[in-house]
Amino acid sequence: MGELIKPQILTFTEESTDITLFDCRWVPCSTRFVVTGTHPKGHGVLRVYTMGERGGITQLANLEREKHPIKCVTFGATSLADRRPATGDFGGNIDVWDLESKASIWQVKGHTSMINAIDGIGGGATSSSSVDIGAPELVTGSRDGTVKVWDVRVKDKPVACMQPGEGAQTRECWSVAFGNASNTSDRMVAAGFDNGDVKLFDLRTMTLHWETHVSNGVCSVAFDRSDIKMNKLAATCLEGRVHMWDLRTRHPKEGYAEWSEKIEKQNHTIWGGRFLRQNRELLVTMGGGGAITLWKYTYPVGGRSKKHPKDDMDMGVAGKLQKLQDSQISEQPVSALDWSPDKMGLAVTTAFDQKIRLIIVTKLNTL
Fold it and tell me: Cα(96)–Cα(107) distance, rounded to whole angstroms?
């Protein structure tokens, strides 16, 4: 790909803050976005910002609590009318916030220790599907080793809890994601753990659907689209490695076809991977060295499945990621990135240099 036709990653504007930033999400159908973090005093912070008329970043609201830094946030389980973010904090609490009243309107003590990751589904605000995909639910993964699913219409107890069996060693869950929600009955949860375990839980049958082990701790898992029949799953890890599984064909013994590569030569952690909402073949990864990288997934030329040479059963064939562009946007790790659901190529990022950045990626409509 020639230099003139490559997509470019540009920092449009940036804003310094006085807090440590952990996560960020766009408010659906809006120029607003929220960030989560912690104040130097240890207070948990949820802030609302907007893009200014001249391209700057303007703070609209600051929601604080005296303890428990806020680690993660999602709009996945809220309606477009409400647009209420759900958060997980260091104390194991889950909150749903009303941005108008600036208050938590739903809270539950979900875990015994820090919630590392949260995702939502079924609310309608972030879904690109025109069909009903079921109840609004949240999934949380915690340091206590459990993965729990919550119905935001019900309080006090989860509708599902995935935890280690009796006598099994507890491993910290670092990442969770919903997927396979193409109708009202099917729904999967992917979870990544600090020891390199990746697990798929089938919420319809309440069983462990599939599991595998990678060589490093799993910092993030992401389906290419949550509201379709599951297609691809990406995982980013410690020491610079990315994994991609083709989820359309599962062999009884071999499992799902996998592509894996070490993409960070200096062993930087890949903090996360986010698929472009408007094109599920494009993925951006956030590096521990402060760089973000744009990738394109290409499917295998000969088809996505073939016959296994030993048992003649169908097995998957993995594609691969092609690097399109990268950009050094920070001297510190990029902690989170969220693509705008409304404007292709626009994204908000947070980094450990305490800066919020809006970035623009060009030429995505040509890929």
Answer: 7
pLDDT digits (tens, 9 = 90+) for 32-90: 999 999 999 889 999 999 998 777 899 999 999 888 999 999 999 999 999 999 999 99
18 in Cβ contact with 37 (< 8 Å): no
Distance CA 36, CA 45 (A): 6
355 pLDDT higher than 90: yes
d(CA 116, CA 16): 24
Class of the 9-16+90-362 domain? mainly beta
Alpha carbon distance 236, 217 (integer Å): 9
Break the chain into its structural domains and give their ranges: 9-16+90-362
Residues 59, 48 contacting (CB under 8 angstroms): yes
* Percentage of residues of the chain with pLDDT beyond 90: 81
What does residue 37 show for φ and ψ, rounded to 5 degrees? 180, -155
Question: Sign of torsion, CA 146 97 181 195?
Answer: negative
Reported as a single tens digit per residue, the pLDDT across 218-239 is 999 999 999 999 999 999 999 9
